Amino acid sequence: MNIKTLLTNLINSLLDGSFERMKIISQMNAAFKEYFTTGEFNRLCKVSISQGNSAFAHEMSSLWIRSGFKISVENDSSLRESEINELSAYITDNAAFVRQLMAMGFDTLTIKGKTTGVSKSYALKKFANLNQYYIR
Amino acid sequence: MKGNPISRFFARLRFRCTIKKDESTNVIDSMVKARRLYKELSLAAHPDKHPDRITEAEDLMQRITASRHNYEELLSLKKEVELKLR
């Protein structure tokens, strides 16, 4: 492999699916902000790309530095683990959304309190009902 | 895809209009609104409230519980509850 091919592959893997990812993240951030400002939801959440857990990787995972789908709770005082579990259930119970995230290269879902550091990570492949289709 | 670039552009535009809306919107709607709707539906469809249509109520109740984290599915179940149990 020459240096040109290496660089091309590197750029491709870095940019692959980026626009789709940014679109979904900005949509979600706008919706979270809207619901927070109108008073319908008391937590302000922000979605971003983070590093994933290599133990949660699957065939469609992108590079580990950008395979995490992170939801950060900005006003996280008195954020309990049970609340994190409940927030995660809205994502993990929706198999269509889990598959959508996996197709975009995400493998880890992380929900984290911004200042308290309360955090939990989930392997997306566990919730997609695709067990028999995975090699690893 | 056949045709000139303009007709291809309009074909793509039509396709984009017909595809389902993004699932991410449903996830956030679910986080915000599903809990309240689930409580409302589980009260409305409780089998004890419908002794004359108990099998329908039990079936609906099971489906409501299974979809308690999915707002769109709860909305479609709400229509079913209104049709079958009211």
Can you describe this structure in just a few lines?
By secondary structure, chain A is of the alpha+beta class. Chain A has helices spanning 3-15, 18-37, 81-92, 95-103; strands at residues 45-50, 68-73, 108-113, 119-123. Chain A has one domain.
Order of helices and strands of chain A: HHEEHHEE
What Rg of chain A is obtained from the alpha carbons, in whole angstroms?
16 Å
Strand content range of chain B: under 5%
List the uncertain runs of chain A.
none
Radius of gyration of chain B: 19 Å
| Oligomer status | heterodimer
Tally of strands of chain A:
4
Summarize the main sheet of chain B. none
Helical percentage of chain A: 25-40%
Greatest interface by residues involved = A-B, 17 and 15 residues
Shape of chain A: globular
Contiguous low-pLDDT stretches of chain B (5 residues minimum) are: none
What order do the helices and strands come in, and which of them pair?
The complex is a heterodimer of chains A (136) and B (86).
Chain A (H helix, E strand, L loop, with lengths): L2 H13 L2 H20 L7 E6 L17 E6 L7 H12 L2 H9 L4 E6 L5 E5 L13
Parallel strand pairs in A: 2-3
Antiparallel strand pairs in A: 1-2, 3-4
Chain B lengths: L4 H14 L4 H22 L9 H13 L4 H15 L1
Helix pairs in contact in B: 2-4, 3-4
Structure description:
- The complex is a heterodimer of chains A (136) and B (86).
- Chain A has helices at residues 3-15, 18-37, 81-92, 95-103; strands at 45-50, 68-73, 108-113, 119-123.
- Chain A has 136 residues and is α+β, with helices and mostly antiparallel strands.
- The two termini of chain A are 27 Å apart.
- Chain B is mainly α and 86 residues long.
- Chain B has one domain (22-85).
- Helix content of chain B is 74%, strand content 0%.
- The termini of chain B are far apart.
- In chain B, 28% of the residues are buried.
- Chains A and B meet through helix 2, helix 3 and helix 4 of A and helix 2 of B.
